[in-house]
Design goal:
The structure is a single chain. With about 130 residues, the protein is mainly beta. The protein has one domain: OB fold (Dihydrolipoamide Acetyltransferase, E2P) (Beta Barrel), CATH 2.40.50. The protein is built from one helix and eight strands; from the N terminus they run αββββββββ. The strands form two sheets. The chain has a five-stranded antiparallel β-sheet, with no helix packed on it. Strand 4 and strand 5 form a beta hairpin. The relative contact order is 0.25. It binds zinc ion.
């Protein structure tokens, strides 16, 4: 049975725009952005709303609940892992990994919850495990 948690994670790139996201991640929080002009949430965080191009975008904390929109298992990797698009309960869809589970048992539409996995000398990386 393939387990994903032994995979080494490279430190994610942190820059001015994503610093608040990774600072929150270090505290176990997942942030996304919501547009104050049109009300649409989005992910990944951007300086402008991808729907109406307003710059009135604000950080919001996600509940950590979501469902798997689609996924793919990378079986040729040294340690197989599952990459997935997870739709957060708040609406936006984010690319992530599904961890702490049997990779063969992952299903589209499955309920998942936020977990953080340590990266190699960087902030922890948000991922999802079966809820
Ligand atoms: Zn907008």
């Amino acid at each position: 049975m393939a387990q994903a948690q032994d995979r080494k994670l490279a430190a994610p790139p942190v820059n001015f725009e994503t610093q608040p996201f990774w600072d929150a991640a270090a505290q176990g929080k997942l942030l996304y952005k919501k547009c104050a002009a049109c009300g649409e949430p989005h992910f990944y965080p951007r300086p402008f709303c991808p729907f109406c191009f307003s710059d009135k975008v604000e950080w919001q904390e996600a509940s950590g609940r979501g469902t798997i929109y689609t996924y793919s298992v990378m079986r040729r990797a040294p340690v197989p892992y599952a990459i997935a698009y997870v739709t957060l309960a708040e609406g936006p869809t984010m690319m992530s990994n599904i961890v702490d589970c049997d990779l063969d048992a992952i299903k589209i539409g499955q309920a998942v919850k936020l977990v953080f996995k340590p990266s190699d000398s960087g902030p922890p990386v948000p991922m999802f495990a079966p809820a």
